[in-house]
C-alpha cells in the first residue's frame, strides 16, 4: 500500500468495515471507569476508557487543566500515570515517585529513594484489598512498596520496604544487571515482574517471578531459559541455563484474573545477533507464554521467532480482547510485534484465531551460526507495516537524496524479513529494529472490535565483524558498547547517542559511573572490573587503547560481534525511504482486515515547506474512549498530542506540547470532570529540540 495524504488514505480504507458497532461482547468491560488503576488502563491492558464527557462533538474545546513540572530535566521516563482514589501517581526523570491531586496537579508527597535512576520507567503498580493499599515503584534493581497515603516505605515488605531483583536468580547478585523499566502486574496478593537485562554476554537470565505483596517473599519463578528436566531444556545447549541470559520480559505482562492466567511476552536471547553459542530454537525467548498466575506453571506458549538473531523481541503488553467467530464470542489475547504483525490466540489454550504459516528463510553464511530454516507468521491480520524494501520505495524527497539512497541501497544485502546478517556487508532490517510496533502497545475498542496500533516505518542496517582477540580497551568497547554506539562511536541519535566529541561534562569519572550503573536503554556492566571500565572510558575520550592485564576472568567472547544499529538516512538526516515513515492503524480483529491507516507524525520543518503527512517515528501508544476518540502523543519531532475519530482516523484536535511526549496518555475522571494526562520530556527529539519534564492534563472548560 503506497503513501498518500492522511485524509484520502483513511477514506479509501473505510470500506474495510470501520465504524458500524457490533453487539457489545463483554458489558463488564464497558462498566464506568473513572480511574486508570494500572499500566495499560487495567489488568486487560486494552487502554480503553468508558468515559464520554469528552467526545467527537466537543474535543476541539480541550484546554490545559493543570501542569506539574518535575524540575529535573529530561530522562526518558516514558511514564503512563496511574490514577486511583483521586490521586495520580507519576515518576520523575530521576525515578522519584510523586503523588498528585488528580484534579489540580498539586503535589501531595514525593518519594526519594536516595538513588538517582535514569532512563525508561513506564509506570507503577497498585494493589488494594479490604482496607490495605500499596503502590509499588522501581528504582534500578530495587522495587519499593509504599503507603499510598504518605509515600513512606512499608517496613514489613522485603528489607526495609524494598526487594532486590538481583537476588534469587541462581547467579552472583553483584554481577547481575537487571532494571524494572515496565511495572509488574498484580494478581490477587502477588506482584509479578520481569525486567530489562543486558542483551550481550554475559547477561542476566530473564526469570519471571512472583512476590507476596505484603511480605516481599518470592512465591514462584518461571525459568525462561529452562533448567534440566524443564520443558524446553532440549531447545538449548546443555549448559545454557548456567551461562546464557536474556529471554526476558521487559515489555510488561497482562493478567486474566477470571482464568487465573498471566500472559508474558519475552525478548531475544543473548547475544542478540550472533547465536553460535546457543544453537537451537531457544525456548522461551521470543515467546508469548501463558502461565498459571497462582503457581507460575506453563499452560501454553507460542514462539514467534526461532533462534532469534535480529532482536525481534515481543515489544509490548498483550491485550485481552473478545473476538466474534461465527455466532460465538471468543476470549482472546492479541500480541503486536516489531515485524508489523498481530498474533491472536484463544486465551485458555493458545489456539490461533487466524492461521499461522511456517515460511522458509535463507541460511546464515557466518561460521558457527545456524539460523532457523523456518519462521511462523500469521496469515491474518494483514501486516500493519511494509514488509519488503525495494528500489522503487526509496526516497524522492530531493533528486540528491534519491541518488544517495539508490547508491547505498545497491550495496546492501536483504530487504525482507529474517535475512541473516553477513560479515562485512550491511543487511537491511525492515521494519527496523524499533518496529513496526513498539512498547507503547495497542488500544482495543470493545464496541467495534478495532485494535489501534502506531507503527514505525524505518529501515535500519547492520553487519557482523570478527572479534578482536587481544584484550584491550578497544576490544572491550567493541564487545560491550559497539552494539549500540557503533564501531566508530557514531551511534544512531536520538535513540542511541553518539560518543564522539562528548563535551566538557563527560570525563572518565562520569563515564565510569554511567557504565557501571547503566542509563536509558543502556544496561549496567557489573561484570567488568574497575580497571576495565576505566580503560574503556579513556578509549572513548582519547582513543587510547592498550593491552589490559587483569586478574578478572575473561568475559564470554564470541567469534563475531554486531557492529551497531544504523538507520538508513539520507545526507540531511531524513529517512532514505519513501513515506509514510510512521502510521496509525485500525485493525478489525473480527475479520483480520485493516479498517483504516493514516500517516502519523511530521517533521515540522518539512511540513512548513509543504511536505506534510510524512509520518515519523513514535514511541508511546494510543488510548481509545467510548466518546469516539483516540488520543495519542508519541511522535518524536512535532511535539503534538492528537485526537482522532476512532471510526475513520480523521484528525479532530491537536495541540503542541512544550516537549515531545514519548509516553502513553492516561484518562480518568475526578469530581465529574474528565481528564487526559500525558508525560512530556523531549528525550527522543533531536539535540536542539526543547527538553524538560512535565505532566500536562487537559479537560473541557469548567461550565
CATH topology name of the largest domain: Methanol Dehydrogenase, Chain A
User: What does the overall shape look like?
Assistant: globular
Query: Uncertain regions: pLDDT < 50 for 5+ in a row?
Result: 1-31
Mean pLDDT: 91
- Number of distinct helices: 8
Name of the CATH superfamily of the largest domain: Quinoprotein alcohol dehydrogenase-like superfamily
- Biggest sheet overview: 5 strands, mixed
Please write the CATH class name of the largest domain.
Mainly Beta
What is the CATH-assigned architecture of the largest domain? 8 Propeller
Helix content: under 10%
State the end-to-end CA separation. 46 Å
Number of domains: 2
Total E-strand runs: 42
By secondary-structure content and strand pairing, the structural class works out as mainly beta
Radius of gyration: 24 Å
Strand content of the residues, in percent? 25-35%
Oligomer state equals: single chain
Instruction: Tell me the strand order in the biggest sheet.
Output: 1-36-37-38-39
Amino acid at each position: 500500500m503506497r503513501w498518500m495524504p492522511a485524509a484520502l488514505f483513511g477514506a479509501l480504507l473505510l470500506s474495510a468495515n470501520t465504524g458500524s458497532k457490533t453487539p457489545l461482547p463483554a458489558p463488564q468491560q464497558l462498566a464506568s471507569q473513572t480511574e486508570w488503576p494500572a499500566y495499560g488502563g487495567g489488568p486487560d491492558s486494552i487502554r480503553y476508557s468508558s468515559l464520554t464527557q469528552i467526545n467527537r462533538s466537543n474535543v476541539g474545546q480541550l484546554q490545559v487543566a493543570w501542569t506539574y513540572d518535575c524540575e529535573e530535566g529530561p530522562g526518558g521516563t516514558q511514564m503512563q500515570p496511574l490514577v486511583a482514589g483521586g490521586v495520580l501517581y507519576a515518576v520523575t526523570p530521576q525515578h522519584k515517585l510523586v503523588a498528585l491531586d488528580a484534579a489540580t496537579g498539586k503535589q501531595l508527597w514525593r518519594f526519594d529513594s536516595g538513588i538517582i535512576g535514569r532512563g525508561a520507567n513506564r509506570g507503577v503498580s497498585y494493589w488494594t484489598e479490604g482496607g490495605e493499599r500499596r503502590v509499588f515503584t522501581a528504582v534500578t534493581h530495587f522495587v519499593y512498596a509504599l503507603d499510598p497515603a504518605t509515600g513512606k516505605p512499608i517496613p514489613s515488605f522485603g528489607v526495609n520496604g524494598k526487594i532486590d531483583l538481583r537476588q534469587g536468580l541462581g547467579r552472583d547478585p553483584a554481577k547481575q544487571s537487571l532494571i524494572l523499566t515496565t511495572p509488574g502486574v498484580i494478581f490477587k496478593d502477588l506482584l509479578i515482574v520481569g525486567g530489562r537485562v543486558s542483551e550481550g554476554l554475559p547477561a542476566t537470565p530473564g526469570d519471571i517471578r512472583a512476590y507476596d505483596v505484603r511480605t516481599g517473599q518470592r512465591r514462584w519463578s518461571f525459568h525462561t531459559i529452562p533448567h534440566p528436566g524443564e520443558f524446553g531444556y532440549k531447545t538449548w545447549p546443555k549448559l545454557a541455563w548456567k551461562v546464557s541470559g536474556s529471554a526476558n520480559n521487559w515489555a510488561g505482562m497482562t493478567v486474566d484474573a477470571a482464568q487465573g492466567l498471566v500472559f508474558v511476552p519475552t525478548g531475544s536471547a543473548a547475544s542478540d545477533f550472533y547465536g553460535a553459542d546457543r544453537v537451537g530454537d531457544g525456548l522461551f525467548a521470543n515467546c508469548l507464554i501463558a502461565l498459571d498466575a497462582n503457581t507460575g506453571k506453563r499452560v501454553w506458549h507460542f514462539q514467534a521467532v526461532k533462534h532469534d538473531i535480529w532482536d525481534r523481541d515481543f515489544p509490548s503488553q498483550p491485550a485481552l480482547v473478545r473476538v466474534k467467530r461465527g455466532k460465538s464470542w471468543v476470549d482472546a489475547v492479541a500480541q503486536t510485534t516489531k515485524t508489523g504483525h498481530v498474533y491472536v490466540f484463544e486465551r485458555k489454550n493458545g489456539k490461533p484465531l487466524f492461521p499461522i504459516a511456517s515460511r522458509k528463510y535463507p541460511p546464515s553464511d557466518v561460521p558457527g551460526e545456524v539460523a532457523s530454516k523456518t519462521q511462523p507468521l500469521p496469515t491474518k491480520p494483514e501486516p500493519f507495516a511494509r514488509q519488503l524494501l525495494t528500489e522503487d520505495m526509496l526516497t524522492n524527497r530531493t533528486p540528491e537524496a534519491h541518488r544517495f539512497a539508490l547508491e547505498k541501497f545497491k550495496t546492501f544485502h536483504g530487504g525482507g524479513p529474517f535475512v541473516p546478517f553477513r560479515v562485512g556487508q550491511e543487511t537491511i532490517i525492515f521494519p527496523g529494529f524499533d518496529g513496526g510496533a513498539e512498547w507503547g502497545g495497542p488500544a482495543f475498542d470493545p464496541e467495534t472490535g478495532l485494535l489501534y496500533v502506531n507503527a514505525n516505518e524505518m529501515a535500519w542496517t547492520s553487519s557482523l565483524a570478527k572479534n578482536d582477540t587481544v584484550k584491550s580497551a578497544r576490544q572491550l568497547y567493541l564487545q560491550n558498547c559497539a552494539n549500540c554506539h557503533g564501531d566508530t562511536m557514531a551511534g544512531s541519535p536520538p535513540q542511541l547517542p553518539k560518543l564522539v566529541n562528548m563535551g566538557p561534562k563527560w570525563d572518565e569519572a562520569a563515564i565510569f559511573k554511567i557504565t557501571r550503573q547503566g542509563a536509558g536503554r543502556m544496561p549496567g556492566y557489573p561484570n567488568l572490573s574497575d580497571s576495565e571500565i576505566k580503560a574503556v572510558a579513556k578509549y572513548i575520550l582519547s582513543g587510547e587503547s592498550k593491552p589490559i592485564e587483569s586478574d578478572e576472568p575473561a568475559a564470554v567472547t564470541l567469534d563475531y560481534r554486531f557492529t551497531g544499529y544504523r538507520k538508513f538516512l539520507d545526507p540531511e538526516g531524513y529517512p532514505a525511504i519513501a513515506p509514510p515513515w510512521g502510521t496509525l492503524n485500525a485493525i478489525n480483529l473480527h475479520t483480520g482486515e485493516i479498517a483504516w491507516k493514516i500517516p502519523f507524525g511530521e517533521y515540522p520543518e518539512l511540513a512548513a515547506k509543504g511536505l506534510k503527512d510524512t509520518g515519523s517515528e513514535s514511541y508511546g501508544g494510543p488510548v481509545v474512549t467510548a466518546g469516539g476518540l483516540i488520543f495519542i502523543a508519541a511522535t518524536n519531532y512535532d511535539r503534538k498530542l492528537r485526537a482522532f475519530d476512532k471510526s475513520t482516523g480523521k484528525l479532530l484536535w491537536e495541540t503542541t506540547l512544550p516537549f515531545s511526549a514519548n509516553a502513553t496518555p492516561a484518562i480518568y475522571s475526578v469530581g465529574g470532570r474528565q481528564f487526559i494526562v500525558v508525560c512530556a520530556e523531549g528525550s527522543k527529539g533531536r539535540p536542539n529540540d526543547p527538553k524538560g519534564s512535565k505532566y500536562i492534563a487537559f479537560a473541557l472548560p469548567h461550565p
